[in-house]
Give the backbone structure.
Amino acid sequence: MIIIDLSTFYTDTAKLSSREAYLTKANEQAGEGNDVVLTGKAPVWLYLAVAHALHGKAKKLIYRSPVTGDVVIFDHDPF
């Protein structure tokens, strides 16, 4: 399982102008066909952009928060 902490992608405030760099970093960390967990303090737009970018790359995507626990965003594992 790959854990991607989105709060490590930027300092202070995430910038929409850096979106492509964030997506590149997320794709590199996620790899191909892995179970991926997104976590960390980040704006909603960044979570949505990364989730969209990982669809078709990750086998399973999970959102993890201390409030909600693990929430499955998608699961393409046939088993």
Summary: The two ends are 16 Å apart (CA to CA). The CA atoms of residues 64 and 70 lie 5 Å apart.
